[in-house]
Amino acid sequence: MKYSEMGLMHITGHPSPSPPAKVGCAVTDLTTGLYTANSIMAALLGRSKTNSGQHLDVCLSDCQVATLSNMAQSVLVSGERDTGRWGTSHPSVVPYRSFETKDGDILFGGGTDRLFGILCVGLGRGEWASDPRFVVNSARFVLLLLLIDDGS
C-alpha cells in the first residue's frame, strides 16, 4: 500500500491512540500524473531547444515522498521529530482545523496573519485581529501549544 510505505499515513488521521487513516482519494496517483505532465512539458521544451528527446522515469513512490518534502524540511530545520497525525489541524498554522458545531463540523483556516484578521471580522470577533496574543501566527501557535499542554 503506497500510502503507508512512503509515509503519508504517518501524518494522516487523528492523533494517537487512533489509527492512521488513508487519504480519501488517490492523491499519490494524481500527484504522479501532475509530475508526469510537468515532465512531459519540460521534455518538449528541451526538445525544441536541443532537437533531442528525453527518457522520463516517473514513479509513484518517488512522487509520494516528494509530497512529504515539507515535513522532512521541517524536521531537518527544527531538529525535532515530527509529531505525526494532526487530524484536521495544521502543524504550524493556527487556526486551521475543523470545529464541531450543533449543525455539523465546520473548517476554519487563517493561513496568514492577514487572512486571520479577515476571518476574525467574518466571525464577528474583529478585536481578535489586534489582540497581541493572536496578532501573528507564531503567537497563536504558542498559545495553542500551551492550551494543549494544559489539557484545555
Topology:
Layout: H1 2-5, H2 27-50, H3 60-67, H4 69-78, E1 96-101, E2 104-109, H5 113-122, H6 137-150
Antiparallel strand pairs: 1-2
Task: Please provide a written account of the structure.
The protein is mostly helical and 152 residues long. The protein folds into two domains: 2-78, no CATH class; 96-150, formyl-coa transferase, domain 3 (2-Layer Sandwich), CATH 3.30.1540.10. The protein is 46% helix and 8% strand. The chain has helices at residues 2-5, 27-50, 60-67, 69-78, 113-122, 137-150, and strands spanning 96-101, 104-109. Strands 1-2 form a two-stranded antiparallel sheet. Helix 2 (27-50) crosses helix 3 (60-67). The chain is elongated and about 60 Å long. It starts with a helix and ends with a helix.
Question: Over all CA atoms, what is the radius of gyration?
Answer: 20 Å
State the domain count: 2
Q: How many alpha or pi helices? A: 6
Class inferred from helices and paired strands: mainly alpha
